[in-house]
């Protein structure tokens, strides 16, 4: 089901705002890849990470390392935003890392762009199988 700015739930609205706010490092302008990831845990916490690198492989490695260090167990929702406010699926390696940490994370919803001011959610299990 498609959602728009009026019908998207408050959790995802908050998570998108947090993802946008994470793009504040001046090094991000010099690096080719900048991405922020916000996770909503079962305890209600929003955990945010911003990674900026010159290579996509470094970006993936750093985002996986960040989530491992936090020792996040169960995730309900996930927002992954590229600089320019484009929502996307995080790397497959990142999603598999989340599911290795806790198999229940396969049920987490990922918010994705589906057009201008349109969104859709997918479960991690439907993305990585």
Work out the radius of gyration: 14 Å
Query: At the third CATH level, what is the topology name?
Result: Cytidine Deaminase, domain 2
Name of the level-1 CATH class: Alpha Beta
Count every helix, treating DSSP H or I runs of 4 or more residues as helices.
4
CATH architecture: 3-Layer(aba) Sandwich
Please describe what this structure looks like.
The chain has 129 residues and is an alpha+beta fold. It has one domain: Cytidine Deaminase, domain 2, CATH 3.40.140.10. Helix content is 33%, strand content 33%. It has four helices and seven strands. Strands 1, 2, 3, 4, 5, 6 and 7 form a seven-stranded mixed sheet that branches. The longest helix has 15 residues. The chain is globular, with a radius of gyration of 14 Å. The two termini are 20 Å apart. The relative contact order is 0.19.
Summarize the structure.
The protein has 129 residues and is an alpha+beta fold.
Attribute tags:
globular, 129 residues, 4 helices, 33% strand, alpha+beta, Cytidine Deaminase, domain 2, seven-stranded mixed beta sheet
């Amino acid at each position: 089901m498609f959602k728009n700015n009026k019908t998207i739930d408050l959790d995802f609205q908050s998570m998108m705002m947090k993802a946008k706010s994470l793009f504040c490092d001046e090094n991000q302008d010099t690096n080719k890849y900048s991405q922020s990831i916000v996770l909503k845990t079962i305890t209600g916490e929003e955990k945010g990470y911003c990674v900026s690198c010159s290579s996509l492989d470094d970006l993936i490695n750093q985002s996986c390392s960040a989530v491992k260090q936090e020792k996040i167990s169960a995730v309900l929702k996930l927002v992954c935003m590229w600089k320019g406010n484009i929502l996307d699926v995080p790397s497959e390696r990142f999603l598999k890392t989340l599911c290795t940490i806790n198999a229940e994370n396969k049920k987490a919803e990922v918010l994705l762009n589906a057009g201008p001011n349109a969104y859709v959610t997918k479960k991690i299990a439907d993305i990585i199988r």
